[in-house]
Each structure stands twice: as C-alpha cells, then as structure tokens.
Amino acid sequence: MATCNICGGETFVAGFLGRMSFGLPPVCGGCGSSERHRIVRRLFEAIRPIAAPWRVLQFAPDMSVDATWFASYQFSIYGGANSLDMMNTGLEAGSFDLVLSNHVLEHVPDDFSALREMLRLVGPSGLVALTAPTPLFRWESVDWGFADEKKNMHFRDYGADFPSLVVEKIPNARVLVAIGRDEATGLHDHVWFISLDPEPLRALAHPWQRMGIPLVYVRAGA
Ligand SMILES: [Zn+2]
Q: How many CB atoms lie within 10 A of CB 60?
C-alpha cells in the first residue's frame, strides 16, 4: 500500500472534478497533497542536510517543503500576503540561496524575465527550483501571449524542451532535471534545478543518485 510521504496517510481520493491519475486516486485523504507535492517533497527531504543553511524564497507556498527545514524562509502569494512581482521583486541581488516556485511560471507574462530575476536573487552560486504542469505531455513549449481563461489563466504550456530553452537563453545556465516518481500513483514528473554554477547542482545530485532518482544534466554546447 502506498503511503503519503507528507502526512503518512494511506488513503487516497479522486482529485478536483473527479480527476484520477493512471486510474488511481491521486489526492491524499490526510493532507490533501497531490502527486506533484509528494514528488517535490521527496527530493527536498533527501537534501535537507545540504539545505539547512539556506535562505529560501518560495513563490506560492505549498506542501512541497517545510519552512523549518531552512535557515530562513520567506514566501510570496500572488495578490496576497507579501506579494512580489516575480519579474521585478525589488529585492537585493544574492538575498537567497534558493528560490522555489511550483506551478507559478506559467502564470507570469514574461517567464524568462522572471527566471533572470530569480537567478539574480540567488546570485552566481544559488539555485532556482521550478516545476510546471505536465511538461512530459509535449515536446515543445507553446506560448500564446495572454492569460487564457480557458486554461487556468496560463500564458503557456511548458514542454520537455524547457531546460534546452533555459540554457539557450541564459548564458552559463545549467539545468539539473530530477525525475521524481509519486508512490501512490506511479506518476513521474520533472523538477528543474537551475544554477549558473555547476557545483551546487553536483552537490544535490549525490544524495539523489544514491536514492535512485534519475537525473538529466543540461547545459549549452561549447
Ligand atoms: Zn498526506
């Protein structure tokens, strides 16, 4: 039987509008987490010793991490508490070691301005961690240039090409793609860790390799 790695719950129920995942109920009856929360959570739990000294900023806090794991933790809620403009936060460069955002970038008008801003906030050796809806469902990202009401106000759909776009558009950027798997449903998802410095990515890769997490390294060609 599958166990929720967030609350230890063993019952799972259908998601919003009866959503199932490979025929299995994806939402934890205990804590309400979905597959994507549990996938990101498992990756972060494995790197807690590394992450303990980090100063963290999360856009749209969720169950994927616990604020107490880090030396400091701030969050931004769109239109709510501490709301920051992801494309221009007004915060000092190098203020954080990690900026984390799950399922936010598809809502931002200019996603690469936002990514450059997040990389500025973490400085030359910091990390940006991102997830977006279902990049494994399509090869190519598609940007239609406006917040589409029919698509949850998304500006675009990300595809499996996102890491390639990052290294193409941002000089010296490297992307470590961690391929997480949700125990309850068997769903796989990509979690993108981006840095201008290969060393912090290498440090994360070690514990994940020991757990058997598949990893893909993406950098621009010489
Ligand atoms: Zn749970």
A: 16
Q: Is residue 17 part of a domain?
A: no
How many H helices and E strands in the chain? 5, 11
Here the CATH number for the domain that contains residue 116 is 3.40.50.150
Domains identified in the chain, total number: 1
- pLDDT tens digits for range 127-152: 999 999 999 999 999 999 999 999 99
Biggest CA pair distance of the chain: 49
Those residues of the chain that have pLDDT short of 50 are: none
Instruction: Show Cβ contacts of residue 159 under 8 Å, excluding neighbours closer than 6 positions.
Output: 135, 137, 138, 139, 140, 141, 142
Residues near ion ligand 1 (CB < 5 Å) are 4, 6-7, 9, 28, 30-31, 33
Residue range 71-84, pLDDT digits in tens: 999 999 988 878 99
Ligand 1 centre distance from Cα of residue 178 (Å) = 22
Would 30 be classed as within a structural domain? no
For 193, the domain range is 35-219
**pTM, two decimal places:** 0.96
Give distance in angstroms: CA of 69 to centre of ligand 1: 18
For residue 68, give every residue at least 6 positions away whose Cβ sits within 8 Å of its Cβ, in sequence order, or none. none
Q: 155 CA distance to ligand 1 centroid (A)?
A: 30
Is residue 2 assigned to a domain? no
